[in-house]
Amino acid sequence: MSTSQPIRVLMTGAGAPGGPGIMHALRQNPQIELIIADANPYASGRAVHAEFIQIPAASQPEFVGEMLRICREKQIQVLLPLVTRELELLSQHVADFRAIGTSVVVSGSDKLHMANDKALLIQTLITANIPVAECYTAHSAAEIEMFAKKLGYPQKKVCIKPSLSNGSRGMRILDASAGSLSSFFEQKPNNTHTTLENVLHIFGDATLPTMLVMEYLPGEEYTVDALLDIGEPLIILPRKRISMNNGISVAGEFENNKEIIDYATAVFKATGLHGPNGLQVKRNKNGEFRILEINPRLQGSTTTALGMGINLPLLAVQQAIGIDVKPLIPEPSWGLRFVRYYQDAWF
């Protein structure tokens, strides 16, 4: 396809925290004819972009059929999903979208399933001899207690999270000091730290989804943005997470960290993921980087790379229509720092 032709793009997740930023990134190129969508009629993106479509949630049976209808009627060339729960569904129907001329920015469904299932991801990396944090799977409160103590609780902090979740849902740091008087007054109510005793009380005798009980990683945390060609990195951008708000980076610094780049390269090659992907890593007690999770999609904060002239959302769209994007990627301006902030919009 000629690069001078318009590219009609449908972006879902217009109400995601990073949605408006990704819209801004795509509109940097006048070739992009952008339509946005979200299940939420109050999605933030609709207040800053003219063409908005309300769509069913991924949990609704009509989701895929409705997306196919919209893409056919709007002659969409690239479908760019930002919502984790949409990814596997859309991936399973890539051939149906391709038949109507729409490329979906998504990895293969088997790769997505592995990346989204944290227990399966950890096992995949272990099989590939890639170091990971010490980790156990649990299905009951009793097993969580057993593995937490095996990992050193209460002397040491321990992390627990569902194997299938996103957006930090269900993630807690078991911290024996969380019930102290000082933590009551110093920590916000949405703090993820809690005690094992509190978790055991909440869970009781309930049958739980597969839970990971993991070694707590106390060191610096980094986000990695990447664009992949079936597991092969075209670019890897590590950035230190200096400040976070509810798990979202609000201040950071891009860093040419070879250790992270090598580790991320090994992880991505082992997973075989494609297109835009994100990775969270953190240092363990020995200062070694270990994976926290993979985000197999454009991350909301990926637009921070615009400060270096690297437009990852646009590159992802161009890759989806068959453009060789490798020559289009400029050399990163390592050391660039950024802050992110809220804005208001009205409709």
Helix content: 25-40%
CATH architecture level-2 label of the domain at 7-107 = 3-Layer(aba) Sandwich
Give the low-confidence spans.
none
Number of distinct helices: 11
The Cα radius of gyration reads 21 Å
**Overall outline:** globular
> Major sheet: order of its strands?
15-14-11-12-13-16
Average pLDDT number: 93
Q: List how many beta strands DSSP finds.
A: 16
Structural class: alpha/beta
Could you give the distance between the termini?
36 Å
For the biggest sheet, the summary is:
6 strands, antiparallel
CATH class of the domain at 7-107: Alpha Beta
CATH fold field value of the domain at 7-107: Rossmann fold
Strand fraction equals 25-35%
Write the H/E string, N to C. Answer: EHEEHEHHEHHEHEEHEHEEEEHEEHE
